[in-house]
Amino acid sequence: MLAQQIVNGLSLGAIYALIALGYTLVYGILAMINFAHSEVLMMGSFAALGAAALAPSMFGTGVLALAGLFAASMLAAGALNATIERLAYRPLRRHSRLTPLISAIGVSIILQNAVFLWVSDQSLAFPQPLSGDAFTLPGGAQISALQALTLAAALALMVLLHLFVEKTRMGRAMRACADDLEAAGLMGVDADVVIAVTFFVGGALGGAAGVLYSMSYGSTKYNLGFLPGAKAFTAAVLGGIGNVRGAVLGGFLLGFLEVLSAGYIPNGAQWRDVIAFSVLILVLLARPSGLLGERVAEKV
Amino acid sequence: MRARTLAAAGAWILAAALSACGPRDHSVIIAVAAPLTGDTGAEGQGIKRAVIMAVEEANASHRFPYHIEAKPFDDRADPKEAVNVANLIISDPRIVAVVGHYTSGCSIPAAKVYARAPIAMISPGATTPEVTLQQTSPDWIGPRVVFRDVATDDVQGAAAARFVYSRLGLRRMALVHDKTPYGQGIAEQFQKTFQELGGTVTSFDGISIGDRDFKALLTKIKDDSSRPQGIYFGGLYTEAGLILVQMRELGMKKNLAFVSDDGAQSPVLYEIAGDAADGAYLTTIGVPVEQLPSARDFLARYKKRWTGASEDIKPFDHFGYEAANIVLDALAKSGPDREKLLAVLPTIRHKGILGETVFDDKGDTLNKIVTMTRAHAKDRSFPTVK
User: Fold this and answer.
1) ipTM
2) Is the peptide bond before B101 cis (omega within 30 degrees of 0)?
3) In contact, B173 and B208? CB cutoff 8 Å
4) Which of A18, A156, B183, B252 has its CA 20 to 30 A from that of B283?
């Protein structure tokens, strides 16, 4: 049973971690919580659904359909996130930190209601190109093709993100902006471009999470993003917001906490959120800036 | 200044135009209170369509010397919203009775508002015993106003337990519910009857509506050392569908039976669970409408009136239609007066598509049939288990 619960926790945590990365990337540079992120993930899922509805022949089964769903969702969610930044956050960048926060909540409400009113207020079936049958792992745990894909895709995206941030010019510019936005600007880094790219990357990761999340549960809905968004935000804070490794650690940790409390504590399924959030409070009491701490400026 | 005058005049004309298209002043209104949006919106929309159809038929028959209208109110399956809606309803003097609410969670608080008016409500879907039972409490303020034409959960949970014990021959069941009065109530009734029969309940767990990951709980049930042979779930189709999908992912569908209630028995179950829904046992209250000889004509009319892919008949539509017709019967006897209508309702013997509906002194129907159906994913139907 422990082996099975570890598989469950890994696949749940991988999705939290992907979403948490979107929160943490933005926070790292702008010190702002993008509360519209959960809606970006929902919109990504709807973009994939829309693409599948427009070209049903392409989205039947197999690798091509999967690639198509991910491409549609990640591009749409990335572009949307960058657009939100341009329209709703950039004009407010020099104001108090509360102002863009309120703007973000506004965007979140607008997007959710736009889908509710114009697209559908019901659960919509989401394409499932993978078969739902389970494989047995050594140790007796069952893993479905989808869970394996979720883990593989999440890990691959995290490695790509790491390489992007650490090895490319744009990644270096992002790190410079995270250290000191104004100083980076004085050194010739175009902060507007870097921020737009950051939002695009964060949104695209959210879009990928949106597809994985909708596929796992076979349906999507206008408020799909709320619950995983809130959990992933928690995961980001747990790991240390602004810290990329912290977001991944926090995501997996939260996934495990939920799964283990539901699996091992009597009547734990009712209490899993209470237990997970109690642990969060305890961690924050001991380490107010999260497990790995906020990103610390690199000394040269 | 002139612009402001113009704007005011414009607004006045607009308001006048709007009120002109509103309901006719002398019409009599039957309120339909149900979730029209959200998770259970599909069922509520179905009930709304059924009531509109009943009212249209009454108008076409010229039984009444006045025009009758059905006016929908959206309670979003949210108890707080249901109280708001109930207050709106009692403040409109043209409304003579309420068909609704659909969920027990909404019906319980809304009934208290209707008792203040007083105005009668007939619920086509609230199956928790508490919905009518609360009226017999000494704390109840006002007359008894709640009626329903569906059988209660004690009937349904008990019938499911007898089926599982005798027909499926299972002795150990794991119970899961969604923590709502409906889901938990029905699971508790199942537990009571199953234990009386000699069965063992190996676990009793609640899940949260809106949660989508139940694998941790299902893994616990799968590896339970008391080896449950099946899962009984008290709740609605969204969570039931997710549980079925995740049971298959965990390789549990082969060895464990899945049994649930009428809240899970919806075509939308197939949207969520797909083929994983196949083989699920689901009780339904009354006889499935396709098999009621008295309802065949209703089905044909329904399909004719409401055509289109999203307007298929939903599991509670015939209860909504019947509730509206009971109100119309009472209205014919009492005239368009809330209190007289309420006084007449307990004496009504309505012969309709569900057979004969008579209310007992609590307001519950005496017509209590529960049928077991089994999901058949290939053609997305729920054939009766003979």
Assistant:
1) 0.71
2) yes
3) no
4) B252
Helix or strand run (H / E) with residue A295: none
Length of chain B: 386
Given A133, A216, A267, which is nearest B205 (Cβ)? A267
Report domain extents, chain B: 26-151+292-367, 154-285
Beta strands in chain A (DSSP E): 124-125, 134-136, 142-144, 219-220
Is B359 within 8 Å of B366 (Cβ atoms)? yes
* Inter-residue contact B266 to B43 (CB < 8 Å): yes
Give the closest of B210, B216, B220 to A227, CB-based.
Answer: B210
| CATH architecture for the domain at B26-151+292-367 | 3-Layer(aba) Sandwich (3.40)
Q: Which residues of A touch B38 (CB under 8 A)?
A: 121
HEC profile of B3-40:
HHHHHHHHHHHHHHHHHHCCCCCCCEEEEEEECCCCCC
Give yes or no for A218 touching B (CB within 8 A).
Answer: yes
Residue with tokens 């892919």, as numbered in its chain:
B309
Placement of tokens 């997710």 in the chain: B242
- pLDDT for B359 beyond 70: yes
Q: B117 to chain A, minimum CA–CA distance in Å?
A: 33
Q: Which CATH architecture fits A2-116+139-286?
A: Orthogonal Bundle (1.10)
Going by C-alpha positions, the residue among B383, B342, B350 that lies closest to residue B117 is B342
pLDDT tens profile B250-309: 888 888 999 999 889 888 888 888 889 999 999 987 776 667 777 788 888 898 888 765
**Is residue A278 within 8 Å of residue A268, measured between CB atoms?**
no
Per-residue confidence of chain A (300 residues) as pLDDT tens digits? Answer: 788 889 989 999 999 999 999 999 999 888 889 999 999 999 999 999 998 888 776 666 677 888 889 999 999 999 999 999 999 999 998 888 889 889 999 999 999 989 988 888 777 888 878 766 678 887 778 888 888 999 999 999 999 999 999 999 999 999 999 888 889 989 889 999 999 999 999 999 999 999 999 988 888 888 889 889 999 999 999 998 888 889 999 999 999 998 888 888 877 777 888 888 888 889 889 988 888 876 654 433
Residue A126: closest CA among A193, A62, A210, A202: A210
- Residue ranges of alpha helices (H) inside B274-354 are 293-305, 317-334, 338-344
How distant is the Cα of A4 from the closest Cα of chain B, in angstroms? 7
Strands B281-285 and B257-260: parallel
DSSP H stretches of helix in B61-146: 79-90, 104-116, 130-133
Q: Is B174 helix (H, G, I), strand (E, B) or coil?
A: strand
Give the number of beta-carbon pairs within 8 Å between A and B. Answer: 106
Q: What is the CB-side half-sphere exposure of residue B385 using CA atoms within 13 A? A: 19
* Residue B4: burial class (beta carbons within 10 Å; 0-12, 13-18, 19+): exposed
| CA–CA separation, A274 and B123 (whole Å) | 35
What are the angstrom distances between the C-alpha of B95 and each of A22, B20, B121? 51, 19, 11
**A218–B39: do the CB atoms touch at under 8 Å?**
no
Which residues, 6+ apart, have CB-to-CB distance to B346 below 8 Å? B359, B361, B363
Predicted TM-score (pTM) of the model is 0.74
The radius of gyration of chain B from alpha carbons, rounded to an integer in Å, stands at: 22
Interface touch B249/A146, C-beta < 8 Å: yes
Torsion angles phi and psi, residue A61, rounded to 5: -140, 175
What radius of gyration, in Å, describes the C-alpha atoms of chain A?
19
Say yes or no for a CB contact (<8 Å) between A227 and B242.
no
CA distance A159 to B212: 27
